[in-house]
Amino acid sequence: MSQKYDLVVAGAGAAGCMAAGTAAKRGLSVALLERNPRICRKVMITGKGRCNVTNNCDNTAFIQAVKGNGRFLYSAINRFSCRDTMEFFEALGVPLKTERGNRVFPVSDRSVDIVDALSRYLRDGGVELLSGRCTALQLRDGAICGIKLENGNVISTGQVIVATGGMSYPTTGSTGDGYLLAKQAGHTVCPPTPSLIPVITNEPWCKDLMGLSLKNVTLTLTNRAGKVLFHELGEMLFTHFGVSGPLVLSASCHMDAAHLDDYTLAIDLKPGLSPEQLDARLLRDFGKNLNRDFLNSLSELLPRKLIPVAVQLSGIPGDRKVNQITREQRRALVELLKHLCITPKAFRPIEEAIVTSGGVSVKEINPKTMESKLVKGLYFAGEVLDVDAYTGGFNLQIAFSTGVLAGESAKSQTDGGWENS
Asked: Are 24 and 127 in contact (CB under 8 A)?
C-alpha cells in the first residue's frame, strides 16, 4: 500500500499535533502518524492529570527557564509565545487559569479538555490520523521521499516532522524512536538522560514517611561547596525510595547524575517562621504539654507521620517529659525543622522522568524553521530535540512553539516545495 501526502508528522503528542494542525491550516495534505489508540497520551498525565499547559510569562522569562540551548528557541517562542498558547486554547473553548508560579491550567483541572481541543483542531483542519509506527525514513539525494512503517507499508512524502518525544514514560509511546530516525539521517543525538526525575535517597527514614505529602515547604539544593543551586517554596512527596513531587523534580534539573554525592537537599518545614519565631512556637506548644512525653507534644506542629522521624533525628528521647527538655535541645530541634537534610543517592530510571534531557543536536537544526541542516524536508519538534526546561509548563510550551514553527515551515507542492518523482 502506498499513500502520498505533502507532509507526514510522526508522533501525535503536543508538538506533533500542533505541527500537523498548523500545516493543514495552510492547505497542506497532512498525515499524523500515532502508534497509540489516542493522541497525546503524555499530555493526559501531565500536572497530575490537570495539564500544566504553559506558563503565563514573557519570552525572556521563558528562555531563562530553559536549562540549556535556550537561545535556539528564540525564533520558536517569538513565533508562538506562551500568551499565544493561552489564546489558542481559549479560542478552542478551554477556559484557563493561572496559579502559583504563573503555571497555567484548564479551569476544569482536566487534561482531557486540552487533548479534546487538539483533537478538534486536527479534525477541523482536515488532518488524517493514521495508526502506525515509523521505523525508517526513505531518503533520495539528501532529501526525504517517504517513510516506512512497522507493518511494511510505505507513505510517500517530501517532508517529515519527527515529533516522537524522548524516552520518558515509554507507556505513552516515548521509546526513543525519534533518536533512531535522526541517526539514520546522519544526525548527532546527545545522550538522553532523565530530567525532572524523582530522587532515591540515602536516608532509610524516608521510607517510613512513604505517602506523606508536604505542602508549603521550602526545598534548598546546595553543592559540596555550599553554593545554593535551587531554592523554592512548594510541594514534595516522600516515597518508598526517597522523594518526589514538584519541588524535587525541579531540583533534580540542577544535579549531575554522575556526582549526586556532591549535593544536599534541605527541607524547611516551617518557612513562614524565622528560627526565633519557631522557637517561640515550640515554647507555647511545650507549655501546653509540660507533663507529656516529647513524642506526644508535636501533634499541632507536624504531620502525624513525621513526628516519630523528627523525634528520632532530634536525639531527644521520645519518652522524655517536655518540662525536662533543655534550651539547647529545643534550639537543635528548631534547626532540624528548618533544615531537615536528605542526601541523593541516585535518580530513578529514565522511564520515570517527566522529560528527557539530551536528544537531536540543535547545532544541526535550523532554529528559524526546525528543518534539518543535513536532510532536506526533515524537521524536528518537541522533546526529541536537545532542549528541556524546568517545571511550570515550559516543556509543553517548547513542544507547542517548535511544533507551530515546523508546521509553518513545511511547504506544499503548489508553493514550490517537494515533488516526489
From this structure: yes
Question: In the beta sheet, which residues pair with residue 365?
Answer: 372
Q: What share of the chain is helix, strand, coil (3-state, %, to 5)?
A: 40, 25, 35
Closest CA to 162 of 417, 415, 360, 416: 360
Q: Is 359 exposed, middle or buried (0-12, 13-18, 19+ CB in 10 A)?
A: buried
Task: Considering only the C-alpha atoms of the chain, give the largest distance between any 2 of them, rounded to a whole number of Å.
Answer: 91
How much is the pTM?
A: 0.84
Q: List Cβ neighbours of 6 (8 Å cut-off, separation of 6 or more).
A: 23, 28, 29, 30, 157, 158, 159, 410, 411, 412, 413, 417, 418
Q: What are the pLDDT tens digits along the chain (421 aa)?
A: 457 999 999 999 999 999 999 999 999 999 999 988 899 988 988 887 899 999 999 999 999 999 889 999 999 999 999 999 999 999 999 999 999 889 999 999 999 999 999 999 999 999 999 999 999 999 999 999 999 999 999 999 999 999 998 765 455 445 678 999 999 999 999 988 878 889 999 999 999 999 999 999 999 999 999 999 999 999 999 999 999 998 999 899 899 888 999 999 999 999 999 999 999 999 999 999 888 999 999 999 999 999 999 999 999 999 999 999 999 999 999 999 999 999 999 999 877 877 878 899 999 999 999 999 999 999 999 999 999 998 899 999 999 999 999 999 998 654 555 454 3
Separation between Cα atoms, residue 339 and residue 379, nearest integer Å: 48
User: Can you tell me the distance from the alpha carbon of 127 to that of 316, in angstroms, rounded to the nearest whole number?
Assistant: 67
Grid coordinates given for 130: 493514521
The closest alpha carbon to 17, from 393, 406, 340, belongs to 406
Q: What are phi and psi of 243, to 5 degrees?
A: -135, 150
Phi and psi at 414, nearest 5°, equal: -75, -20
| Three-class SS state of 361 | coil
Burial of 282: CB neighbours in 10 Å, binned 0-12, 13-18, 19+: buried
Nearest to 382 by CA among 82, 13, 78: 13
Q: What is the DSSP letter of 321?
A: B
Contacts of 380 (CB under 8 A, 6+ apart): 161, 162, 163, 178, 182, 360, 365, 370, 372, 402, 406
Distances (CA, A) of 202 to 126, 205, 303, 337, 343: 53, 9, 22, 19, 6
Are the CB atoms for 381 and 401 separated by under 8 Å? no
